[in-house]
## 1
Amino acid sequence: MAKMTRAAAAELYKRLAAHAPHPETELHYKNDFTLLVAVVLSAQATDVGVNKATPALFKVADTPAKMAALGEEKLGDYIKTIGLWRAKAKNVIALSKKLIADHAGEVPADRDALEELPGVGRKTANVVCNVAFGQPTIAVDTHIFRVSNRTGLAPGKTPRAVEDGLEKVTPADYLHGAHHWLILHGRYVCKARKPECWRCAISDLCAFRPKTPAPNDVAPDEAAPARRPVKKKTVKRLASTPKLRASPSRKKAKKK
């Protein structure tokens, strides 16, 4: 697949920005700490599912100290509807204690420091750096990975390769919002199984083929094949074939 040019990439972001001038995360949070917790809980889960569980949790534990005091068992009661909740409960309690011990209970604005916390990888650290501290980091999740490869914006075989490619091709003016624009586009338009190309604002810039037609349309490759023209010899043969006469029984049936 051909890689998108810088000019095309700039046009892509221009259109996505016009559609969503002020993009933001769809995770619900109250402060930097609850954002960190929400992102950790969202791994291999949906934002919708996390948002259903966290309001009650954040009412009782919105700081590292309160979360650590809650403990794994009680925390588990709040997040049982989220996938891998046992492992996540363990990590959230552990990172809360580490924040207290190493960072005076504050969430660090440094990616390396964030990645030292239990349950926090590069993607989570990038989200926190971007959303909480306004840094131009791009967290490559499954949606961004798909959009980057499909469109040709930043093809790569690994999330890190895609991240590096995006940082190179994304204009400076769009770096801060790039994460949000691409994830929202992948979540609602450039879907995994059935991308909605017919309503995509960047369809003409995208390298993905064939384009998915609107629900009531038929894709060119799915259209009924054209019929072959009938040869003249076949037409003559059919014309010279004598018509079958109806049997007496059939004639009587017709009269009835």
## 2
Amino acid sequence: IKPRFRKSFCITSHPIGCEYNVYNQIYYVKKRNLFLKEGPKKVLIIGSSSGFGLASNIVTTFGFEAKTIGVFHGEKNYFQNYSNEGWYNIAALNKFSKILGLYSKNINCDA
């Protein structure tokens, strides 16, 4: 994936970089071990693929071990083999939640 810039912003995202970012956030939550059994058990997160939504998704899934459903809009570009960072973030989140046996479903849709 070649970086493409629009002014000072990079408009391409790298899947390994996004996965590494999600892994670091999960590691931080698990390492702190601040969350016990008190907390939400079922959570709906709207805008779950980046920013506060992704952070909420990670904390509730991996911190509280709540069952989460996330709604996001991320595009997979099948013709040019790249996607936006939200799509890669959710792919990584699903990968790690499956490895740890946690329930995390994410719905890709456009309002």
## 3
Amino acid sequence: RLFENFYRNGIFVFGGGQVLVPLMFTEFVQMKQYLHASGFLSGFALQQALPGPTFSFTSYIGALSMKNFGYGLGGQILGGAVAVIGINLPGLILVLFIVPFWDDLKKIARIKHSLSGINAVSVGFIIAAFILLLIPIGLDIMAIGILLSTFLILNFTKVSPTVLVIVGILLGCFI
């Protein structure tokens, strides 16, 4: 069942792994309650600080889901592996079977026009991710201050995102 959940999410990826965040939050936290919002958000924050694709976040979700169902370390490793395979398999199938014909497919008017719509939907998913991940944090003065400070520091200084995440973790432990 875990494989099916990630495979289905992998089908919807268009525009990068960030598009998956609201889908996975809704499915794994709100609907199926495989994990809590705090665990999801902590893992996502950590993944953003580390180099690599957003898809690596799926191994965390798979492993944590198995842990929450009472599985030991072996089950958690299996859950992480199943999640990574499930999320990446649709893309692999696409690369193996569609890419060889991609130049010809892009010339078909309906496909060309549908790609513009798919790109627009991807932007909507990223905005939805922002809103869905903001809701569990709440909108108190401190949260808004942290959000604005982080945004300004990332956009107007050369401070590494990794440093910001580490500082955020430390502040979260002491505040």
